[in-house]
Amino acid sequence: MNYSYLVDSVSQCASAFSEADLKNNVEHWQSASRDLGNLLQGLARFDEAIFWHSVALDSDPDLGEIFFQLARLYIKEENWDEAISYLHRALELHPNSALINSNLAQLYGQTGNREEEIKFWYQAIKIDPELVTAKGYYKLAKAFEQQKKLAEAEFCYERASNNEENLIPAHYDFAEISQRRGNLEQAINCYEKILAQDPQQAKAHYKIGTIYLQQKRYEDAIDQFRQTIKHAPEYPWAYRDLVKTFLLLERWDEAIATCHAIINLVEEYPWVYVQLGNALREKGRITDAVAAFQKTCKLRGWWQCDANQYYFTRDNFTYRIPLWQPHIEELIDREAVNALEIGSYQGMSSCWLLDNVLTKPSSKLVCIDAQVITILKDNLAKTGKKDQVTLLVGDTHQHLASLTPESFDIISIQDKCKLVDYAYKNAQLTWQLSKVGGLIIFNDYGWQNIANPQQNPKQGIDKFLDSINKNQWKLVNHAPQANQLMIRKIQ
Q1: Cα torsion for 110, 112, 117, 118, to the nearest 10°?
Q2: How far is Cα of residue 459 from the mean position of the Cα atoms in its chain?
Q3: Residue 173: its pLDDT value, please?
Q4: Which of 32, 268, 422, 442 stands the most exposed, by the fewest C-beta atoms within 10 Å?
Q5: Annotated domain spans of the chain
Q6: List of E strands, 26-102
Q7: How many of the other CB atoms lie within 10 Å of CB of 44?
Q8: Would the CA dihedral through 303, 306, 308, 311 be positive or negative?
Q9: Torsion, CA 249, CA 251, CA 252, CA 255, rounded to 10
């Protein structure tokens, strides 16, 4: 009985304050407040009763506080919608109340509205930073990062990391997000705080090293990578970036020694042999460099490279093999697969296609290049499928215009010319040559010459894709780290 009376009384009191002109309807809201106070007193809810009795005696009550207290009554009755409604009305009158914001956050959490919960927690802690603990800030930061609200996440990570609890994960995450937002010095400061707590945190040394490398502070970067290896001898990425730094500084012997250390102490990673091959080539040890690139191919699963003794002095392709394989499986061992390659260089991707995709005698490969070198011809001959290959030398666009439209299942574009208009023309002509269902792979999508804005293939490719109906193609794969865009022609 008392519960039913309470619900009715709260509703009447809410109506009295929501609808009444307080100055002209004093008796109505005072009577409602008095009745509600008496009922709460009868239920032994004395603190609440005292508040409503005081309202009944007040000639000019704080309407914001009234709405807040009404919301609290609705909360106790688990009427979440009404409680939220009155908290919002209270907030309109007291926008700088951390208490109202935090109550709204808790209610939205209760109702499962995660986005609004996080939003109001953030508003509350901006008003009162001491409202939550370091762990609370850390949880909020993770939530904001998940929502891609990086400024809010950064604020919360900073509060979490500055707290006396010294949460090392918060320092790491604060550093990561600072680095992503371009605040490198702040990121370094976070990593240094980690090292102040634990000097053996190899990851922190490594992260500082990557920032120094980005800042071209090469000697400092080398020192941090060596510290990483000292504390974590099997941390492969420190070795990788150490080699990268030595190569940038043209310290070939140190690069070679570090590569051998990785191979002997850690693992035979494909990228190690690529870097080893690059350093050996620069030292003039071409035969050893070729052997290193053959080892790379073997580790990538391309065993024919070693078996056929292909001769490559550079590797600009094998890192793309894992990107290509899932999307061309349907073409493997099929009859009459036609492939087109623009820019063959030494023939690494050409030979891979012949060994792994164009395996039937009825399958064909057309290679277009401004000039064909002897190494390319020799490597193609070693595949044993020379008769399946057509080499076209000279003006790329003239050759493309001479080919049969809609005749190719896979087209790979890695032209030496990177000009915007040239890339646009390549895209336009190869689109006409692709079958419906065919794959077109742009291998320089994202590469650019900072010194010459016209050398930016992505602009030309995007210009072409924007010029055709979006229903005519679909994205198959975009790998920014490899400067690659793969699309499928569907109309």
Answers
A1: 130
A2: 22
A3: 80
A4: 268
A5: 199-249, 320-489
A6: none
A7: 7
A8: positive
A9: -90
CATH number of the 320-489 domain: 3.40.50.150
What is the C-alpha to C-alpha distance for residues 289 and 184, in angstroms, rounded to an integer? 36
pLDDT at 112: 81
Q: Please give the pLDDT value at position 383.
A: 96
Judge contact between 68 and 90, C-beta under 8 A.
yes
Report the half-sphere exposure of 55 (CA within 13 A, side-chain side): 31
Element (H, E) at 389: strand 389-393
pLDDT of residue 348: 96
Amino acid at 374: T
Residue 57's region, left for phi above 0, alpha for psi from -120 to 50, else beta, is alpha
Residues 285-319: tens digit of each pLDDT:
999 999 999 999 999 999 999 999 999 999 999 99
Asked whether 213 and 221 are in contact (CB, 8 A), the reply is: yes
Q: Torsions phi, psi of 312, nearest 5?
A: -120, 130
E strand segments, 405-467? 408-413, 434-442
Distance CA 205, CA 167 (A): 17
Q: What Cα–Cα distance (Å) separates residue 290 from each residue in 74, 126, 486?
A: 77, 60, 29
DSSP string, 80-97: HHHHHHHHHHHHHH-TT-
Tokens of 445: 């999508």
Q: Name the β-bridge partners of 411.
A: 340, 440
Complete edge-to-edge strand list for the sheet that includes strand 389-393 = 389-393, 364-369, 338-342, 408-413, 434-442, 484-489, 473-479
Q: Sort strands 364-369 and 389-393 into parallel, antiparallel or unpaired.
A: parallel
For strands 338-342 and 364-369, give the pairing: parallel
Q: Using alpha carbons, select from 259, 241, 250, 346 the residue that is nearest to residue 295.
A: 259
- Return the structure tokens found at 163: 């707290």
Measured distance CA(247)–CA(262) in Å, rounded: 15
| Pairwise CA distance, residues 251 & 279, whole Å | 9
Owner of token pair 């260089």: 345
State how far the Cα of 383 lies from the Cα of 401, in Å rounded to an integer.
Answer: 28
User: Which residue's entry shows tokens 């907030």?
Assistant: 91
- Range 199-249 classified under CATH 1.25.40.10: yes
The structure tokens 């990062």 sit at: 145
Cβ burial 391-406 (10 Å sphere, 16+ → b, else e): bbeeebeebbeebeee
Span 36-54, pLDDT tens digits:
666 666 666 766 655 665 6
Q: Is there a contact between 340 and 433 (Cβ–Cβ < 8 Å)?
A: yes
Q: What is residue 449's DSSP assignment?
A: B
Do domains 199-249 and 320-489 share one topology? The answer is no
Burial of residue 147 (CB within 10 Å: 0-12, 13-18, 19+) is: middle
Where the chain has pLDDT below 50, the residues are: 1
- Read off the tokens for 81: 């919608």
Residue whose pair of structure tokens reads 């208490």 in the numeric block: 99
